[in-house]
């Protein structure tokens, strides 16, 4: 149900005392399956995540360092990521052993049993089978606390291995005395240049009994890119060794300062303090239920939302900025780990409800990263911008906070940073600004980027409105309508465009490089800024409802590329990944709240379990769990940037939200209308209306025309048509399509009215736009263009191999059309072949002299695309008997991880032939050093243009 008036709630002022909600947390939820969580000890938003590592191979399932299916522990490291799809962290590994020490992780690791493993909020314990050692872990915000009980007498060792998991760029261990050491670990993984400093204290003297380092040693300071040390002592049966590890991103002084968080050696006292910290945070939302399973799922979900972002400053406020310099935080706390493509949807809206102070801290962090790094964060990790995922969703977090009245940051500075991000010319934004959408020709994931930029632009417009920036408001509101340029009125889907027209064939179930971890079904409904416009585009409420029904009732299978993130399918709805998360609530917009309830309750009941495999997809830094928390409360923020919630019947009998200002909000599932849409915010101004500033009605937005032709290249002549949405035509008073044909870049002809299809017989560029000539001030669409190439010859090609349908490059003729692919293979200009060699025969139609043959190939090792081992050229007069012309062997290192194109060029004395055969030998099975090896992966061959001279 949807409401636009302030609802009446019971708000009670008074002191709030936290209760024992941490008892319901089960940290093992999500550690199996595809959840990618970890079970170790941490405090809310803490710098330290002290957890066992069972995975060191960089595998997708082991991104957090732990997977429940494993039975071997390599050690206990102090940083971990919660539910990401890329591996990193695992810094400062310690591992207790006995006997002769070894730095071979196959030797110092130990098996374990889940029967001897326990975890709760802020605590973890396990028995290491190999040497019968009991391990207990707890933490403060910046300090990890280890307790090792050696159940056998003998020589005890504590291994410190700085080469654990990712690449060690710079390691240093400084021995201060027998109980104290400093550690520096600079490493490369997802974060390309990460700094971690540690101050390690033992509760009793230990001596060094083994060292491995490949750098210099100055006194008791060891350096290198290979660095490990073993500390030891003789222990009696049952003896304990305690270790405290304080972390800092800034330096040794910061680490030593942070160690003062735990000035004693009382493990139980630290554990109790950690539990109290969790109770304080978890008590912000109190739910009532007689079902303990539901309580466990809820409070574990809330716990997962509070494991990040992570404090990234020392006790004195010093932090490492995006410029890799040390700065001082003034008036705010500096954080890291911003998985914004995921968390802008539900996690950050949840924080605006229960953690307004940290929300302002996050935004102040964004502003500092803009000032020190040149732009707002996209996916920031340890002061590194990974540029993982798409959009500039920092602006969503900022706009949502502003419209909800959250203070504590400079609105003007935040707006400056947001506008800057939107006006850059990278990642397809240049094309997006110029033509109103991104096409396959411009950038990969073009549909998703267009849609998410449009939503982010709407967010910037809301900020501009609050700051009374009328011109900026108009500009960004118009940009927020750019989704319409990719809406195909004939199919009812938001689809990719290529060379000015629709890319064909189109299968809405197909997962490909035009969408981000999704397909046409899942992204067609991502227009949160203009849901009414989306409903209208699809033909009205009834047709929109039918489209939603069709999505949920479709076959639960995708086509195209296998995408491990797409899980939890209900038809084509995929709850295991973020683009679908708001879709169930869209039934509210067509007055069918009962369908919203049906879908939401099905997801709550079936996709969240009290089990290691209890999450249907990656936790994604709290987003998956935030959906559960909000939906079970009966609220969801479909459009962050609007200060109201969509509602559904709450999943619990009663929910009480304890706000930071001392007030309480009560949600009851006995309220027949679920009037919870304004909980936590005390004004309901209707932000985002297209009519707030004169001349910005959404009806005034004119989508671009569509240029249609048989192909991008042609032999003799070709017909080109220009079409436009009939609905748009009907809305305009005097619509006309204007166009021009450019056959020489130096000659610009005038635009003229389009009446009939265009005939071209030369390579040409066609530009066109739609205009309403009735308006006093000309109202028109963006200009869209298409370029068509006349083929340089009349060759034909017969491809003997079978290309992957996702990587077709326009079909067989795409290899001889004179159009060369770039290093960005995701734009669709390369043909891809897997588990086979490439072989094709070119018919030159007559006997010709041949002196040079070149076939172009691409390598992107991370994407399993490798150069062929060799390319052979054969010639023939009859297409039956072929003679070897030349062989070109590959010279590109398969371990070169850059995206590279190479022409395998063969130059010989002229010979005569009609037919040319090209044969490229596939690299084959991916080798052991490749990340695809554990999956028995096979390399791709990517080929594009073949030229003959």
Account of the 3D structure:
Mean pLDDT is 93; it is low at 1-16 and 682-695. The protein is 20% helix and 30% strand. By secondary structure, it is an alpha+beta fold. 53% of the residues are buried. A ten-stranded antiparallel sheet has the order 7-8-9-10-19-14-13-12-17-16. It is built from 18 helices and 55 strands.
Attribute tags:
ten-stranded antiparallel beta sheet, alpha+beta, 949 residues, disordered N terminus, 18 helices
Shape: globular
- Can you summarize the main beta sheet? 10 strands, antiparallel
Q: Termini distance? A: 68 Å
Determine the oligomeric state from the structure.
Answer: single chain
Measured as a percent range, the helix fraction is 10-25%
Summing up helix and strand content along with how strands pair, one would put the structural category as: alpha+beta
Extract low-pLDDT stretches: 1-16, 682-695
Q: Estimate the strand proportion.
A: 25-35%
- Computed CA radius of gyration, to the nearest angstrom: 30 Å
Question: How is the topology of this model organized?
Answer:
Elements: E1 41-42, E2 49-53, E3 72-73, E4 75-77, E5 93-98, H1 105-108, E6 110-111, E7 117-120, E8 123-128, E9 133-139, E10 143-150, E11 154-161, E12 167-177, E13 180-188, E14 194-202, E15 207-213, E16 217-218, E17 221-224, E18 227-235, E19 239-248, H2 252-258, H3 267-282, E20 285-288, H4 292-305, E21 310-311, E22 318-320, E23 326-328, E24 335-336, E25 338-339, H5 340-343, H6 347-354, H7 356-373, E26 379-381, E27 384-385, H8 394-403, H9 411-422, H10 429-435, H11 446-466, H12 470-479, E28 487-488, E29 493-494, E30 497-498, E31 501-502, E32 510-511, H13 520-524, H14 531-537, H15 541-553, E33 559-560, E34 569-570, E35 573-574, H16 593-606, H17 623-633, E36 635-636, E37 646-647, E38 654-658, E39 664-668, E40 706-709, E41 713-714, E42 718-723, H18 726-731, E43 735-742, E44 752-753, E45 758-760, E46 764-772, E47 779-780, E48 784-790, E49 796-799, E50 831-834, E51 838-859, E52 870-876, E53 883-889, E54 900-921, E55 940-948
Parallel strand pairs: 32-33, 41-48
Antiparallel strand pairs: 1-2, 2-4, 3-6, 5-11, 7-8, 8-9, 9-10, 10-19, 11-18, 12-13, 12-17, 13-14, 14-19, 15-18, 16-17, 20-38, 21-24, 22-23, 25-26, 26-27, 28-29, 30-31, 34-35, 36-37, 38-39, 40-42, 42-45, 43-44, 43-46, 46-47, 46-48, 49-51, 50-55, 51-54, 51-55, 52-53, 52-54
């Amino acid at each position: 149900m949807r409401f636009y008036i302030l609802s009446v709630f019971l708000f009670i002022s008074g002191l709030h005392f936290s209760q024992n909600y941490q008892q319901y947390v089960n940290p093992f939820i999500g550690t199996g399956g595809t959840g990618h969580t970890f079970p170790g000890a941490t405090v809310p938003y803490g710098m330290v995540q002290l957890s066992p590592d069972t995975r060191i191979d960089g595998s997708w399932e082991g991104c957090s360092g732990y997977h429940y299916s494993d039975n071997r522990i390599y050690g206990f490291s102090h940083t971990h990521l919660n539910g990401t799809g890329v591996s990193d962290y695992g810094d400062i590994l310690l591992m207790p052993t006995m006997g002769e020490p070894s730095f071979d992780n196959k030797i110092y690791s130990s098996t374990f049993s889940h029967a001897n493993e326990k975890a709760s909020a802020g605590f973890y314990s396990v028995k290491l089978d190999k040497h019968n050692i009991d391990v207990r872990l707890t933490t403060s915000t910046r300090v990890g606390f280890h307790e090792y009980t050696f159940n056998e007498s003998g020589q005890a060792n504590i291994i410190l291995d700085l080469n654990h998991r990712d690449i060690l760029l710079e390691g240093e261990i400084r021995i201060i005395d027998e109980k104290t050491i400093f550690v520096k670990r600079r490493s490369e993984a997802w974060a390309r240049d990460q700094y971690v400093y540690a101050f390690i204290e033992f509760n009793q003297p230990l001596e060094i009994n083994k060292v491995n380092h490949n750098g210099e040693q100055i006194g008791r300071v060891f350096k290198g890119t290979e660095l490990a040390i073993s500390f030891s002592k003789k222990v009696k049966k049952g003896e304990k060794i305690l270790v405290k590890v304080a972390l800092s991103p800034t330096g040794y002084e910061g680490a030593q300062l942070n160690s003062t968080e735990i000035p004693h050696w009382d493990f139980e006292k630290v554990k109790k303090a950690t539990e109290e910290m969790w109770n304080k945070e978890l008590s912000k939302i109190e739910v009532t239920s007689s079902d303990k399973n539901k309580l466990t799922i809820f409070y574990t979900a809330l716990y997962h939302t509070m494991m990040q972002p992570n404090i990234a400053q020392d006790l004195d406020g010093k932090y490492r900025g995006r410029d890799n310099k040390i700065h001082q935080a003034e008036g705010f706390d500096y954080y890291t780990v911003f998985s914004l493509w995921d968390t802008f949807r539900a996690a950050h809206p949840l924080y605006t409800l229960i953690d307004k102070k940290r929300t302002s801290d996050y935004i102040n962090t964004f502003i500092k990263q803009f000032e020190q790094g040149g732009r707002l964060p996209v996916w920031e990790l340890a002061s590194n911008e990974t540029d993982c995922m798409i959009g500039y969703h920092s602006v969503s977090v900022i706009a949502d906070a502003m419209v909800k009245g959250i203070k504590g940051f400079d609105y003007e500075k935040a707006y400056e940073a947001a506008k800057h991000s939107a006006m850059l010319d990278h990642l397809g934004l240049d094309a997006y600004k110029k033509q109103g959408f991104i096409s396959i020709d411009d950038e990969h994931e073009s549909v998703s980027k267009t849609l998410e930029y449009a939503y982010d632009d709407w967010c910037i417009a809301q900020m501009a409105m609050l700051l009374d920036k009328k011109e900026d408001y108009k500009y960004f509101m118009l940009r927020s309508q750019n989704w319409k340029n990719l809406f195909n009125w004939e199919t009812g889907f938001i689809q990719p465009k290529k060379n000015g027209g629709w890319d064909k064939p189109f299968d809405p179930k197909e997962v490909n490089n035009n969408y981000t971890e999704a397909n046409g079904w899942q992204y067609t409904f991502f227009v949160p800024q203009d849901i009414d416009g989306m409903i209208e585009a699809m033909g009205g409420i009834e047709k929109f409802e039918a489209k939603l029904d069709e999505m949920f009732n479709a076959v639960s299978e995708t086509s195209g590329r296998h995408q491990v993130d797409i899980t939890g399918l209900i038809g084509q709805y995929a709850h295991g990944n973020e683009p679908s998360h708001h879709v169930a609530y869209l039934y509210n917009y067509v007055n069918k709240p009962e369908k919203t309830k049906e879908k939401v309750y099905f997801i709550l009941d079936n996709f969240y379990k009290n089990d290691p495999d209890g999450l249907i997809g990656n936790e994604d830094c709290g987003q998956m769990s935030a959906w559960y928390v909000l939906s079970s409360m009966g609220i969801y923020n479909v459009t962050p940037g609007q200060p109201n919630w969509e509602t559904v019947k709450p999943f619990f009998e009663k929910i009480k939200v304890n706000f930071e200002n001392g007030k309480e909000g009560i949600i009851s599932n006995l309220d027949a209308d679920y009037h919870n849409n304004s909980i936590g915010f005390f004004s309901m101004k209707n932000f985002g209306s297209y009519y707030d500033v004169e001349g910005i009605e959404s009806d005034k937005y004119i989508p671009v025309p569509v240029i249609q032709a048989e192909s991008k290249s042609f032999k003799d002549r070709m017909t080109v048509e220009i079409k436009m949405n009939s609905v748009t035509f009907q809305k305009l008073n005097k619509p006309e399509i204007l166009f021009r044909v450019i056959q020489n870049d130096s000659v610009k002809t005038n635009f003229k009215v389009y009446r009939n299809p265009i005939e071209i017989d030369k390579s040409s560029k066609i530009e066109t736009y739609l205009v309403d000539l009735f308006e006093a001030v000309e109202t028109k669409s963006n200009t869209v263009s298409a370029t068509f190439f006349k083929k340089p010859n009349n060759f034909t090609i017969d491809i003997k191999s079978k290309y992957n349908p996702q990587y077709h490059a326009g079909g067989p003729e795409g290899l001889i059309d004179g159009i060369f692919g770039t290093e960005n293979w995701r734009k669709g200009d390369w043909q891809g072949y897997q588990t086979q060699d490439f072989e094709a025969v070119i018919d030159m139609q007559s006997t010709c002299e041949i002196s040079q043959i070149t076939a172009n190939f691409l390598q992107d090792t991370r994407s399993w695309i490798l150069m062929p081992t060799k390319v052979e050229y054969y010639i023939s007069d009859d297409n039956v008997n072929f003679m070897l012309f030349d062989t070109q062997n590959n010279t590109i290192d398969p371990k070169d991880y850059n995206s590279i194109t190479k022409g395998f060029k063969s130059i010989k004395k002229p010979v005569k032939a009609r037919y040319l055969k090209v044969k490229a030998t596939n690299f084959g099975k991916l080798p052991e050093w490749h990340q695809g090896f554990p999956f028995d992966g096979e390399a791709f061959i990517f080929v594009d243009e073949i030229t003959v001279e």
